[in-house]
Design a protein that fits this description.
Layout: H1 2-24, H2 41-47, E1 54-58, H3 66-85, E2 89-93, H4 103-112, E3 118-124, E4 127-133, E5 136-141, E6 144-149, H5 159-182, E7 187-193, H6 204-210, E8 214-220, H7 228-235, E9 240-244, H8 252-263, E10 267-271, E11 275-276, H9 279-284, E12 288-293, H10 299-304, E13 307-310, E14 312-316, E15 319-326, E16 333-345, E17 360-361, E18 367-370, E19 376-382, E20 387-391, E21 394-397, E22 416-426, E23 444-453, E24 463-464, E25 467-468, E26 473-474, E27 479-480, H11 483-495, H12 515-520, H13 522-553
Parallel strand pairs: 1-2, 7-8, 7-9, 9-10, 10-23
Antiparallel strand pairs: 1-5, 3-4, 5-6, 11-12, 12-21, 13-18, 14-20, 15-16, 16-17, 19-22, 22-23, 24-25, 26-27
Amino acid sequence: MKKLLISALVAIVAVVVLNILARFVYTRFDLTEDKRYTLSQPAVDVAQKFDSPVIIDILLDGNIPPEFSRLKTETIQLLESFASKNANIKYNLVDPLEDEERAQQTIAELQGLGLQPANVTVEENGKVSNELVFPWAMVNYNDQTVKVPLLKNKLGSTSEERINNSVQQLEYAFADAFTKLNITEKKSIAVIKGNGELRDVEMADYLTTIRDYYNIGAITLDSVANNPQKVLDQLKGFDLAVIAKPTEAFTDQEKFVMDQFMVQGGKSIWLMDQVAMEMDSIYAGGGSAFALPRELNLKDLFFSYGIRIDPVLVNDLYFTQIVLATGEGNESQYNPLPWYYYPMVFSRNDHPINTNIEAVRFQFANTIDLLENDYAKMVLLRSSPLSKTDGVPRQVSLDILNSPPNKDLYNNGNLPLAVLVEGNFSSMYKNRVKPLDLQNTLDDGPANQMLVISDGDLIKNQLRNGRPLELGYDKWTNSFYGNKEFLVNSTNYLLDDTGLINIRNRKVSIPLLDVEKIVAKKTKWQLINIGVPVVLTLIFGVFFSFYRKRKFSA
């Protein structure tokens, strides 16, 4: 008896000591194969910058479908990992639809904040129902709030793929939100004007989105003719230039200013249309219009970086749709139809920019040839294997919808549509006569990057009643594409000094239960889960009763 008491006392003391030590020494062990609970160093760095409480509201509490329960669990575990690095990070679980009487009002309020719900079809015991779930988190710090989407949809993805996609982007999504809340000095982006580029309202959603990260200004190259040095000096005050669908040729002087901006370290995104063709022209022309080459006087600039944009149209059997009206007046019907000149481009997930993004919509895209030189070139987006090129000039007509395409002709696919160029930039005017006399020009510059996209409309949002819609949303077919995410990722990659965006390359695998097996073996496992404990309890009771009788009868 004495030995038993001593053993019990030692055990109690050991537990107490361990609990005391645990208050001062805290550690976590990640035993998962893909180390999904081990935060990357850039994410840790940004999380440790908070010196006051950060409250995160996760809108996934309450009665939610099983797949979202898994997403909730993964979100909580990730935030616990962040909290282990900074005790100021705390989270709450919130059921936004807890008050059933105010449910509709709450839904409208959340949608007004830009929190779109997911409509989930739930099948249970042979009954099918639709439920609204808000897979969002709200990160609150001081007087600021940042919305974090928890659900990552991709066209054609299964439930398992959707959860995997969502979990893969969680760390980046929260680290990105923490970055926005910690920004004190923003980098600057110049929107280039003066050569017939898109209007601000046509890029409004992109510009509004990146305003959380960067300062935005406009630089008009028209002024180069009068004061080129002033324009270059102003441009050098920006970290990145966006050139969105110019329609007028650049002068040699304007080209030299842009050349020096890039050689001296300025990043750039070029969204180019080498063919003049618009859907509005086809509608206005009674169903047809001529596609013509567009001369922008930039061939030699791109050639110096190993890039050539061909004046052709990409014709792709992986297409997006247009909507045409048939009938008149109240009898009108709007029918979505395939449009082979609007490729639907799926990412190969081989770079932080294009990893885990929705399909991107191109409109009258051209192809990009890659030329041999010292620059590294990465193709971020390609047309499908079932695509081809149509030369110009040519007539583009809606009549192509009346006859099925000859698939045998679509044998020249995988055409480059977006290319990232990296290396130590050299001036295209090196060892040549300069068109301008500028101060402090360079022939060879530091390591730099530029992105060339062969479709100016990739950045263009649609309008409704003169107001911009979300970039990537097509109001005619009610479809969403990944244009905005691709461009925002591109911008962040070009201007990211911390390597934060590289988190997007992480791969995790979340094993889910097989729904078909669950249905087929549901009764079996219910009997096992209910019956086995009951049987074990009865056996233990009989054995314990027998033991007591034998012990006390002796």
